[in-house]
Amino acid sequence: MTTAVVLIEAERTALPTLGGTLADVEGVSEAWSVTGEWDFVAIVRVHDHDQLAGVITGQIGQLEGVTRTRTMVAFEVFSRHDLEALFSIGQ
């Protein structure tokens, strides 16, 4: 499984509806509306690294209202559960 975090800048007119549209894209497991420089964050999970381009540039980048994206591919995933277990060792 390959996971990528995609930061998305959108046109102001797309803000009310783009989150739901992002969530409907196959390969997007979550889409968040956020504050700051970026308008949305999408978590993309695909079986194969080669599928990322199809989802990110082929689908997300082509959505009406998307003006810019920045993608970060995850090397490792750490869950809160794993971190709590790590810090509780020896207590």
What is the fold's blueprint, element by element?
Blueprint: E1 2-10, H1 15-23, E2 28-33, E3 40-46, H2 52-56, E4 66-73, H3 80-87
Antiparallel strand pairs: 1-3, 1-4, 2-3
Overview of this protein structure:
- This protein is 24% helix and 33% strand.
- The protein has one domain: Alpha-Beta Plaits.
- β2 (28-33) and β3 (40-46) form a beta hairpin.
- The longest helix is centred in the first third of the chain and has 9 residues, at 15-23.
- With 91 residues, it is an alpha+beta fold.
Features:
91 residues, alpha+beta, Alpha-Beta Plaits, 4-stranded antiparallel β-sheet, 3 helices, 33% strand
Kindly summarize this structure in a few lines.
This protein is of the alpha+beta class.
CATH A-level architecture: 2-Layer Sandwich
Q: State the CATH superfamily name.
A: Lrp/AsnC effector binding domain/regulation of amino acid metabolism (RAM) domain
Mean pLDDT: 91
Counted beta strands: 4
The fraction of residues in strands falls at 25-35%
How are helices and strands ordered from N to C?
Answer: EHEEHEH
What's the story with the biggest beta sheet? 4 strands, antiparallel
- Oligomeric status: single chain
Q: What is the number of independent domains? A: 1
